[in-house]
């Protein structure tokens, strides 16, 4: 499955979420990661994220789709990370 993760967390928790996402996905933009994951990797990522956040304050959005070819992406401005969804 192709996954996009977008997070908004308290600044002190950002490094933990950043490290976790980098283990599984490719950095796209400040708090945005994307990439292909197996079902097992997806479960591990969710579990790891849950250990780093405060669900009463932080927000993590995870979008899933069959593949990057099902998503139309438009960039306005400068690319900040790896915007190639096929890695």
TrEMBL record:
Subunit structure, interactors included: Homodimer, forms a heterotetramer with a Cas1 homodimer.
PANTHER family per record: CRISPR-ASSOCIATED ENDORIBONUCLEASE CAS2
Enzyme Commission identifier(s): 3.1.-.-
The protein's role, per its UniProt record: CRISPR (clustered regularly interspaced short palindromic repeat), is an adaptive immune system that provides protection against mobile genetic elements (viruses, transposable elements and conjugative plasmids). CRISPR clusters contain sequences complementary to antecedent mobile elements and target invading nucleic acids. CRISPR clusters are transcribed and processed into CRISPR RNA (crRNA). Functions as a ssRNA-specific endoribonuclease. Involved in the integration of spacer DNA into the CRISPR cassette.
Alphabetical list of Pfam families matching this protein: CRISPR_Cas2
Enzyme class: hydrolase
UniProt entry keywords in alphabetical sequence: Antiviral defense, Endonuclease, Hydrolase, Magnesium, Metal-binding, Nuclease
Positions of Mg(2+) binding: 8
Keyword Metal-binding recorded: yes
Claim: Metal-binding is one of the keywords in the record: yes
Gene3D superfamilies in the cross-refs: 3.30.70.240
Residues annotated as transmembrane: none
Name of the featured protein: CRISPR-associated endoribonuclease Cas2
Homology family: Belongs to the CRISPR-associated endoribonuclease Cas2 protein family.
CC cofactor: Mg(2+)
GO molecular function: hydrolase activity; metal ion binding; RNA endonuclease activity
Highest taxon in the source lineage: Bacteria
One GO BP: maintenance of CRISPR repeat elements
């Amino acid at each position: 499955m192709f996954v996009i993760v977008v997070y908004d967390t308290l600044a002190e928790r950002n490094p933990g979420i950043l490290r976790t996402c980098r283990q599984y996905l490719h950095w796209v933009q400040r708090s945005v990661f994307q990439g292909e994951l197996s079902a097992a990797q997806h479960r591990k990522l969710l579990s790891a994220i849950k250990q780093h956040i405060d669900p009463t304050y932080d927000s993590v959005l995870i979008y899933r789709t069959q593949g990057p070819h099902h998503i139309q992406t438009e960039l306005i401005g400068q690319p900040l990370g790896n915007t190639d969804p096929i890695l």
